[in-house]
Design brief:
Layout: E1 8-12, H1 20-33, E2 37-40, H2 47-63, E3 68-71, H3 74-80, E4 84-87, H4 94-101, E5 106-112, H5 115-124, E6 128-132, H6 148-157, E7 162-165, H7 173-179, E8 183-186, H8 188-191, H9 196-208
Parallel strand pairs: 1-2, 1-8, 2-3, 3-4, 4-5, 5-6, 6-7, 7-8
Helix pairs in contact: 1-2, 1-9, 2-3
Length: 213
């Protein structure tokens, strides 16, 4: 199975921005606006709700042929048949995730501001790595900050796709793309906007050279 190319807008959900009754509609609007990847991120302690939402999102993403990645929760990704999982420093090891989800699963790894973590993740079989936060983030205001130079170094050193995250807007995104990012993981600048589809379209236009309305 050929894994999809990790390029474009990578829209990340947030339960604080998207009440239950808005989640599916907002994600569909993001996809219609040009999001190429969706990540389901919900830190709540309600497994029944999370399972139902993940199932619904996976069905939606499969309809549009867009990969759904589950944040942190390997078992939830397995249960709903998601395209893969994204793991961080406090999550199960990459080898554990691979054993559970299989060789065709897409496994992303958060590497924060450290190239050494990304190199180790690539050696261990990660499909993509994420660096950030590059800018002040309303979602994670105390997040580790990463310099733009890290993307340039990573572009030279890595062979896996590179995702940039953290406070990204259509105005500062070109700096990240110029420095070597393949995909832009965005939360607030898509899902906190009144018109989610238009917000996604502005990011999508950065990858096509087009001009969003």
């Amino acid at each position: 199975m050929n894994k999809p190319s990790c390029r474009g807008l990578y829209a990340v959900t947030d339960a604080l921005l998207l009440p239950d009754d808005r989640l599916i509609h907002a994600v569909e609007q993001a996809i219609l606006g040009g999001a190429r990847w969706i990540q389901y991120r919900d830190k709540s302690a309600d497994p029944v709700r999370r399972l139902a939402q993940a199932h619904a999102l996976n069905a939606l993403c499969q309809h549009y042929d867009v990969p759904l990645i589950v944040n942190d929760d390997v078992e939830l990704a397995f249960q709903v048949g998601a395209a893969g999982v994204h793991i961080g420093r406090h999550d199960p090891a990459l080898a554990t995730a691979r054993a559970r989800l299989g060789k065709d699963a897409i496994i992303g790894v958060s590497c924060y501001n450290r190239l050494d973590l990304a190199l180790a993740a690539e050696r261990a079989g990660a499909d993509q790595v994420a660096f950030g936060a590059f800018f002040p983030s309303p979602t994670k205001p105390d997040e580790i900050r990463a310099p733009l130079e890290l993307l340039r170094e990573a572009r030279t050193a890595l062979n896996v796709p590179i995702i940039a995250i953290g406070g990204i807007t259509p105005d500062n995104a070109p700096l990240l793309l110029d420095a070597g990012a393949d995909a832009l993981a965005v939360v607030s600048a898509v899902f906190a906007q009144t018109d989610v589809q238009a917000a996604a379209r502005r990011f999508a236009a950065l990858f096509t050279g087009g001009i969003a309305p």
